[in-house]
């Protein structure tokens, strides 16, 4: 597997495209897939399998997913990437999750997000990176603001979560606003 690699102070970010994900599923058995992708549960694996079976990208949408590996332990601790990548309009949506609770609140996701934003503007040639966040997710709201994202508005009843429609706060950062 030829990961696209980004190294930060404490993390190794291993980048995967839809084609890489297809290769992982076609060339490996379930236990190996779970190890490669850092799945912690059967549910994690089943969600990924569902994405694989239903197609990772469409004619004008793709993604670049980075697995977050803690350098000290070699453990996959989370994910951060750019999805809903629309090449025609030079934009993508950033998403992230820290899947190992013991690594939360150490600034690791901020380290990863900073690297992914840089990758998006410099390697993917994006003009705009968007983020959609629940209004009660204060940690995520702070993370975006810390990294230069600007609040643009609210998409009402945008996500259906646990039987409830929830609003999304829309944030974005433009290439011209990016200062690194």
Describe the structure.
The protein has 180 residues and is α+β, with helices and mostly antiparallel strands. It has a domain at 4-126: Aminopeptidase. It has helices spanning 18-27, 30-37, 42-54, 108-122, 138-146, and strands at 4-7, 11-16, 62-70, 76-86, 91-98, 128-133, 150-161, 164-174. The protein has an eight-stranded mixed sheet.
Quick summary:
The chain is built from five helices and eight strands; from the N terminus they run ββαααβββαβαββ.
The helix-strand sequence is EEHHHEEEHEHEE
With strands numbered from the N-terminus, the spatial order across the biggest sheet is 1-2-3-4-5-6-8-7
Sheet with the most strands, sense and barrel status: 8 strands, mixed
- Ends apart, CA distance between termini: 30 Å
> Helical segment tally?
5
**CATH topology of one domain, what is it called?**
Aminopeptidase
Low-confidence stretches: none
Share of helix among residues?
A: 25-40%
CATH architecture of one domain: 3-Layer(aba) Sandwich
Query: How much strand?
Result: 35-45%
Number of strands: 8
Radius of gyration: 16 Å
Q: Mean of the pLDDT scores? A: 92
The CATH class assignment of one domain is: Alpha Beta
Tell the overall outline: globular
The secondary-structure class comes to alpha+beta
